[in-house]
Design goal:
338 residues, mainly alpha, 15 helices, 73% helix, 0% strand, extended
């Protein structure tokens, strides 16, 4: 660490550290071998379950141990348990993975295990539908799903770009016994995007939600899309080098059916390019959008002028982004062949 004076260890201290680490490794390997032997023997005992707990606390990325743990639950523990006991066990599993996620927030197997816990939540505590949690057949599920939504929102507050958490949130929302509306989820992405524009997962989630809303005939007013373009404009000007914003803009433009929108957005980008003359993503989109705009033009002079502008931009892109020179040269070649 900067500003911290290093202390030189003696040979004896280094040797003692080496011996200590070797002992830990030996202990870990012995535990792992023991768990794998139990798994191969299809040992579904509580003792084996406890062994997996010890092993996974040491190494939460050992997916084979997670698979074995679930097998023990299904084959050894669930059959001899009441629904209440199963629900309590799954609650303990969620606590175990939550503790691990605080140190390892991007381990696939932790998120997978949480999803499995929700999927196996039993009906209860009651056997009827109603507002009283004590008699509601979905009471445990409602409680577990509500808790998981709160947990994943805290995870996203800590790291808004954790795509594992975003994927899990999508699952929780879509499978909840009390589903949230697309509008409320859209508001959530707005909050996350406005707090940090550089968020691939939030922009992606927004595109999924808008697609679903448009398919239902909602949010189809042109003024709404104008608001979306204004949101993206703010993001572009805040960080013109952030790829996620430009990808979302391309998605929103789509096939460029609106000549009016194309011209307006091209003008916005050309204005930005005057301020940020080396913005690769801005130039890349201009090349693409002017190609789309050509389809709307009938005047040969206008088409030729658009081609000239595209060629000039592509040559500039080769200068500032030489690693993708081949791609830009291909675009120049295809332009010259037209």
């Amino acid at each position: 660490m900067h500003g911290v004076k290093r202390t030189r260890q003696s040979a004896e201290a280094r040797e003692a550290q080496r011996i200590k680490e070797a002992a830990k490794l030996t202990e870990y390997k012995s535990l792992e071998d023991n768990v794998m032997q139990r798994r191969n023997a299809k040992d579904w005992s509580k003792e084996s379950f406890d062994h997996t707990t010890r092993l996974l606390k040491l190494n939460p990325e050992l997916y084979t141990a997670w698979n074995y743990r679930r097998d023990i639950c299904i084959n050894g523990m669930f059959p001899n348990s009441t629904p209440l006991e199963i629900n309590n066990l799954l609650g303990s599993e969620l606590q175990l993975t939550l503790a691990a996620l605080k140190q390892h927030p991007k381990v696939y197997w932790l998120w997978n295990h949480r999803r499995w816990c929700l999927q196996n939540t039993p009906n209860g505590p009651g056997d009827s539908n109603g507002p009283d949690p004590a008699t509601d057949i979905n009471g445990w599920k409602r409680s577990n799903w509500a808790r998981e939504l709160a947990v994943v929102e805290k995870m996203l507050d800590a790291d808004a770009r954790n795509f594992h958490a975003w994927n899990y949130r999508r699952y929780v929302v879509s499978s909840s016994p009390d589903p949230r509306s697309e509008i409320s989820e859209l508001d959530y992405t707005t909050k996350k995007i406005e707090s940090n524009f550089s968020n691939f997962s939030a922009w992606h989630q927004r595109s999924k939600l808008l697609t679903a809303l448009w398919e239902k005939g909602e949010k189809t007013d042109p003024s709404f899309k104008d608001q979306e373009f204004e949101l993206i404009k703010q993001a572009m000007y805040t960080d013109p080098n952030d790829q996620s914003v430009w990808l979302y803009h391309r998605w929103l433009i789509g096939s460029g059916d609106s000549q009016t929108v194309l011209r307006r957005e091209i003008a916005v980008m050309e204005e930005l390019l005057e301020i940020e003359p080396d913005s690769k993503w801005c130039m890349d989109c201009l090349v693409h959008y002017k190609q789309l705009l050509k389809r709307h033009e009938t005047d040969d002079a206008q088409i030729a002028d658009l081609e000239k502008q595209r060629l000039e931009t592509l040559k500039r892109l080769i200068e500032i982004d030489p690693q993708r020179k081949g791609r830009y040269m291909d675009l120049i070649s295809s332009t010259n062949m037209q």
